[in-house]
Amino acid sequence: MRKEASLALKGITQQDEELWFIKDIDLLIEHQGIEQCRLLVLPALREAVQPVIDRQLSNAQQVLEVGCGQGFFANWLAPEWLKGKISSFDINLPLLRENPSRNGNLFRGSVYELPTRSNQFDAVIGYSSFDSFFCLGNALREVGRTLKPKGKVVFFQDLIADLYLEEYEQKSRYSGWKTTDRHFQDLIKDLKEAGFRIPGDVEFLEGAAVERRGAIQKRLGADFAIEKFPLYIVYDRGFVIPIIVRQTPKGRLVLKVEPEGVLTPQSHQDFRNFIVLNHHPKIDFESFRLGDEDVLEWVKLCCLVAEKV
Predict the structure, then answer these.
(1) What is the sign of the dihedral through the CA atoms of 222, 228, 234 and 238?
(2) pLDDT interval class at 238 (50, 70, 90)
């Protein structure tokens, strides 16, 4: 069943959704945890999304980011040449207050009624945001209004579309990809109905990088609670494994690897076998040479590109 249909049966409207998102403080706490996980593997994420950004947005002069949250995409992932061209918005006030962007292109708004001109933007970015919209078709029609003809929408999506989960799916740890697949099926259908064409299929993006332990600690202002190095870290947004739990003894953030996550295998071979078994990666892990204090990061996410007709 479509998300908006199941919610309508419960008497939940589009306005109810927005009221919830406007003030929900729990959403801020959840986003803070997700952002810490993404920052942990930032170079690998950049490796994954950069080719898509270069290919799809190189000629764009005005870009709209939908559902920016705390600003992870615009502040961390976007290349320098793109940052000044992005206008970002979210409806959640606690998230916007935590957004460090000070370039004047940050505003509060609803994806269902944007305070922007028609045919204003060359491209739209959604970084794991469109799965949170209950009325997806309405959101896409409004996004289409703001786009210029031939303008593009680039959807980056974690492997788990959390907010698209139905109650029965939340009870099963193996329902993640089925939910994300359902989200993309709905997204493609609604995009076509909203006047977009889709030139390709859903693409799986991978990225890998090696960093020194100290570089990660400096970026996150955190210590590792584990002393086994080299360390192997996978980010698939909980699709197969949890990444970390966050602890704050004496007010300091500590990154602790989940024991069941199989993230600290004793050998490179164990790590490669684990990834190959669960994700069938394109990257050759044998090409990486790791030393003491090194961290090997590997990420996987989805991408879909649509164009306004």
Answers:
(1) negative
(2) low
Question: To which residue do tokens 């989960």 refer?
Answer: 165
The number of helices, as runs of H, and strands, as runs of E, in the chain is 12, 12
CA distance 244 to 114: 36
Would you give the DSSP letter of residue 113? B
Tokens standing for 96?
């916007």
Domain residue ranges of the chain, discontinuous segments joined by +: 3-203+304-308, 207-300
- Please provide the CATH number assigned to the domain covering 3-203+304-308: 3.40.50.150
pLDDT of residue 309: 94
Residue among 278, 279, 275, 296 at smallest CA distance from 287: 296
State pLDDT tens for residues 80-137.
999 999 999 998 888 888 888 755 689 999 999 999 999 999 999 999 999 888 889 9
What is the chain's alpha carbon radius of gyration, rounded to the nearest angstrom?
Answer: 19
pLDDT at residue 226 in the model? 63
Model pTM score: 0.86
